[in-house]
């Protein structure tokens, strides 16, 4: 089981992922924007940051960059329709972050979370 911090601005996707990952045995705290997720990171520890890239305010790349600095042991995964942005050589995204492109199948997300937690 992992403690997951989820940042996703799409309400229905955020709710779906929270419930689904919870059913897979993980504890999920979810937020609709990067600022709220960043505040949560300052108040608690997490095993994994699961974040969208494109969000209003504090975007997922900046959230991940800050998270990697403040909690270097935490794993980071982007869920995005903009994978090329995250994979760019010039991107400030943490280099160890995993990228899962939308749309994805729930079983693929759960399997990737399990792989990342096992590593």
Model description:
- The protein has helices at residues 11-23, 34-43, 60-70, 83-87, 106-118; strands at residues 3-7, 27-31, 48-51, 75-80, 98-101.
- It is α/β, with parallel strands linked by helices and 119 residues long.
- Strand 4 (75-80), helix 4 and strand 5 form a beta-alpha-beta unit.
- Helix 2 runs parallel beside helix 3.
- The longest helix is centred in the N-terminal third of the chain and has 13 residues, at 11-23.
- The model has no long low-confidence stretch (mean pLDDT 90).
Characteristics of this structure?
44% helix, 5-stranded parallel β-sheet, 119 residues, 5 helices, 5 strands
Unreliable sequence segments: none
Q: Main beta sheet, described?
A: 5 strands, parallel
Q: From the alpha carbons, calculate the radius of gyration and give it in angstroms.
A: 13 Å
CATH architecture: 3-Layer(aba) Sandwich
Q: Under CATH, the topology is which? A: Rossmann fold
Break the fold down into its secondary structure elements and pairings.
Elements: E1 3-7, H1 11-23, E2 27-31, H2 34-43, E3 48-51, H3 60-70, E4 75-80, H4 83-87, E5 98-101, H5 106-118
Parallel strand pairs: 1-2, 1-3, 3-4, 4-5
Helix pairs in contact: 2-3
Summary, kept brief:
This protein is 44% helix and 20% strand. It is built from 5 helices and 5 strands, in the order βαβαβαβαβα.
């Amino acid at each position: 089981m992992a403690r997951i911090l989820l940042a996703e601005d799409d309400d229905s996707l955020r709710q779906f992922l929270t419930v689904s990952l919870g059913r897979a045995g993980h504890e999920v705290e979810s937020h609709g924007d990067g600022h709220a997720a960043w505040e949560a990171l300052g108040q608690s520890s997490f095993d994994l940051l699961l974040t969208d890239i494109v969000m209003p305010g504090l975007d997922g790349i900046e959230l991940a960059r800050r998270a990697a600095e403040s909690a270097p042991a935490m794993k980071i995964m982007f869920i995005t329709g903009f994978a090329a942005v995250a994979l760019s050589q010039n991107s400030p995204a943490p280099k160890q972050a995993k990228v899962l492109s939308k749309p994805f199948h729930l079983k693929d997300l759960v399997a990737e979370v399990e792989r990342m937690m096992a590593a």
